[in-house]
Amino acid sequence: MLPRFWRKIKYRYDLVGSYCENCGRSFYPPRNVCPNCRRKSNIREIRFGDCGKVISYSVVHDSENTRMRKPYIVAMIKLDDGPVITSQLVCSPDEVQTGMRVRKVFRKYGEEGESGIIYYGTKFVPADSE
After folding, report:
1. Beta partners for 125?
2. Do 87 and 115 belong to one domain?
3. Hey, what long-range contacts does 26-33 have (CB within 8 A, 24 or more apart)?
């Protein structure tokens, strides 16, 4: 395992991004420099909340990724206290709609063989589910 993998673990397992104290913009994934303020930026780490709303989505019926159950949904989600992020939305294609409330969950992404490493991370589900 590469050291870079372990250093970035908190960003994979939670919604940790960055916030520019100079202009008030938030970023996910995190940035070291604000694209607005550039050298004048004062960046700090921030943990975003768990909820947001779907602003756009796509239902994927066919892809080269053989590990994903199809169809699956990829959505652009506007977090309540942060930026717009792209994430998988775990629900039926019939359930998803623009403007629906969603919340973050911790789910399996994949694994390296039957006895290999299992990867987990953040996905979203409808806010009213389980």
Report:
1. 103
2. yes
3. 26/81, 26/82, 26/83, 27/83, 28/79, 28/82, 28/83, 28/85
What are the E-state strand segments in 21-93?
26-27, 43-47, 51-60, 72-79, 84-89
The answer for 64, left when phi > 0, alpha when psi is -120 to 50, beta otherwise, is alpha
Whole-number Å distance between alpha carbons of 78 and 31 = 18
pTM of the model: 0.79
Tell whether 5 and 69 lie within a shared domain. no
| Kind and range of the H or E run holding 101 | strand 101-111
Same domain, 54 and 84: yes
Residue 44 corresponds to which tokens in the numbers above?
């700090």
Amino acid at 124: F
Exposed/middle/buried for 97, CB within 10 Å: 0-12, 13-18, 19+? exposed
User: 34-56, pLDDT tens digit by residue?
Assistant: 999 988 889 999 999 999 999 99
Range of the domain at 121: 49-130
For residue 51, what are its two tokens?
A: 């909820």
Choose among 128, 117, 130, 126: nearest CA to 12.
117
